[in-house]
Every structure is written in structure tokens, then in C-alpha cells.
Amino acid sequence: MQLAGRVAHMTGDGSDGWEIYYRARDLKARGVAVVNLTIGEHDIRTDPRILDAMAASARAGNTGYTVGPGKPDLRRAIAERVTARAGVATGPGNVMVTPGGQAALFAAHMVTLDPGDTGLYCDPYYATYPGTIRATGARDVAVPTRPETGFQPEAEAIAARAAGARTLLINTPNNPTGTVYTRRTLEDVARVAADHDLWLISDEVYDTQLWAGEHLSPRALPGMAERTLVVGSLSKSHAMTGSRIGWLIGPEAVIGAVTALATNTTYGLPGYIQDAGLAALSLGAAFEEAVSAPFRRRRDLAVACLASSNRLRLVPSGGAMYVMVDVRATGLSGNRFAERLLEAERIAVMPGESFGQAAAGHVRIALTVDDDALAEALARLAAFAEGLPDAG
């Protein structure tokens, strides 16, 4: 018996880039003290008010099927939030509720790409981006960005790879770099998307974690609402990573196609989870700010802790729960630096190479432990870098 090649094609060849995370997890399972700064998981749990709403909904009987694009009241609440934050008129018909942002990414590509098409995405990238494109049978093509320009996508680089492409996936605020795309960058991206008739898929799950600049959804730019699909989620904004509740925003025809896809895959999201999502949104912007505030503070802490290092350069971070650090002055690759750091200091960070080649020679640090633990880990990390033999 032989399995279909679909999953092998989706995962690709070679490493998935998460070896350091796996090693750190295994060390902790053996009782070794490890400071794990690899994954974007809050160091707080979901607010009890949200959990109470979830439990009350389940006990009230909302445990049956919920086929379709989502409960009407939740879709209305999401549409109102998107309208207020992005400045683009959005109705419930533009909203599909999904089992997390990852499912929205998958659905967006499934309804816009055919086998043999090309899907573009920017390097560095979140680990699942290439596989999400390849799952459709399409070819994934990375568009490199450069540390020298703050990892901002450049129109010329996108246009050079746009022949035969149907989609372009972007992410701002960005994981892994923390880069917030400027208005000019997004206007350039929009122009290339229009010139080459691309669907623009905009991953905006970090839109509440903004430390510098402004968050501009490309859907708000002239002529872009009809060709832009926006991925959103409560995972980062409301510390609900395990609840798996997100959404896709787009033209009503796209939402109809995604609804048909969901009928044949997820068959809807549990009603009590949707009710918890509605309760989360009802807590308002002040609650979202409180969830994001520690990461703003820790970004500033990282800047202060690494400012005097001769061998580490912090990539300016305008958002998200990470900072990217250039370690090339140590003479080590990001992979080797992370390996040696884990061996010597029991501190786990993600190599930049885990997110593509544009961030080679960098490491990503998740700001996901309390301030004192983070400050101590950063001091040890800096001392480790300074103590390495000269690169020459």
C-alpha cells in the first residue's frame, strides 16, 4: 500500500527548522532547567472571564454542530472590530470564522491557488507558510527581503518573481523579524499585486502588538479590498492560542468558497468556542492593550540589555512578541549560535535560518518569559556572545 504524495509535497525536503525547540523541550522533560525563548506563547493563560463564558455556553447546550461561516453575532462583532481598526467597511458577509489563523491561511490559499500555480511569500517567513501553499499543489516561491532595509519587502523583488503567480502572502507586524511594513512598502506591494493580478493574503494576527509606526491593513488601500484576504485571530490579541479561533476577511464570493471548503473539512467551529470568542471581543481595546503591554515592555528591555554588545545587533522591532538579533559578528551562523547557546547556557532561541535564508546569521528571541527572567537570559546571552573566540 502506498500513501498519497500530498503530505510529502506539503512538508518538503529536509529540516522543519525546529530542532532547537525540540531539543529544549526534551531537556526540560528530563528535568534540565532551560529558558525557552523559542515559541510565541504567552506567559499568561486565557482570562477567566473568557473561560467562564466558554463553560457557560457549553453547559447551556451549545455543543452541537455549527456548520457554516460562523455564528452571526460573532461574525458581526468581528466585522465591527475590523471596520474600526482597519477603516474599511466590513460586514458579516465578509467574515469566515475559522479554527485559528492557520486554518484561515490554509483556506485562503486553497480557494485562490490551483495545482501548478505559484504562490509568493516573503522571506523570512513563519514556518508553515511554504507548506500551506504547497498543500494546494501549487509551487511556493520565496521573495527575499534584506536586513539592510529592515526586512521590508521591495517591489522589484516581488515583480521579478510574479510571472505565473496567483497569490502573495505578507505578514505585518512580522514574525519572525518584528518589522512593521511602512505605508510606502504596502503601497508598493499593492501596486505590484494589481499590476500582476495577484490575490494579496495579509496575515495580521499581530495587529494589536505594535510598538512603533502604524499598522496599515493593505485592504484599506485604494482598489485593494476586492483582491485582499486578511487573516486574523484571537490567539495573540487575547491569549487564546489553544482555543483555535480565527477568521478570514474577504469579498463575499471568497467567503462563500471558504464556507464550502469548511463544510468538507472542519465542519464548523464548536459553538461554545465561538461564544468565548464573542466574550473576548466584548472586553474591548483596553483588554487587548493589557495583553500586549508586556511585550512592548520586554521589547524595550531587550533594546537596553543588548545596546552595549559589540557582537550582537538588534534588528529594530516595531511589533510582535519577538526580537531578531544579528549574530554575524560572532562568526557563527544562526543555527550554530543557537546550538552552542543551548549547550553552554541552556537558553533556547530560534535560528534565523529556521525562517528562510534572508535571516541567516540571526536568531529570533521570543519575549515570552517574565521580565526578570528575560533580563537575566539576555545578559547571559550577551556575555556568551562576547566570550566567543574572535571570528577571524
From TrEMBL:
<dbReference type="InterPro" id="IPR015424">
    <property type="entry name" value="PyrdxlP-dep_Trfase"/>
</dbReference>
<dbReference type="InterPro" id="IPR004838">
    <property type="entry name" value="NHTrfase_class1_PyrdxlP-BS"/>
</dbReference>
<dbReference type="InterPro" id="IPR050596">
    <property type="entry name" value="AspAT/PAT-like"/>
</dbReference>
<comment type="similarity">
    <text>Belongs to the class-I pyridoxal-phosphate-dependent aminotransferase family.</text>
</comment>
<keyword id="KW-0808">Transferase</keyword>
<dbReference type="GO" id="GO:0008483">
    <property type="term" value="F:transaminase activity"/>
</dbReference>
<keyword id="KW-0032">Aminotransferase</keyword>
<dbReference type="InterPro" id="IPR004839">
    <property type="entry name" value="Aminotransferase_I/II_large"/>
</dbReference>
<dbReference type="Pfam" id="PF00155">
    <property type="entry name" value="Aminotran_1_2"/>
</dbReference>
<protein>
    <recommendedName>
        <fullName>Aminotransferase</fullName>
        <ecNumber>2.6.1.-</ecNumber>
    </recommendedName>
</protein>
<dbReference type="InterPro" id="IPR015421">
    <property type="entry name" value="PyrdxlP-dep_Trfase_major"/>
</dbReference>
<feature type="domain" description="Aminotransferase class I/classII large">
    <location>
        <begin position="34"/>
        <end position="381"/>
    </location>
</feature>
<keyword id="KW-0663">Pyridoxal phosphate</keyword>
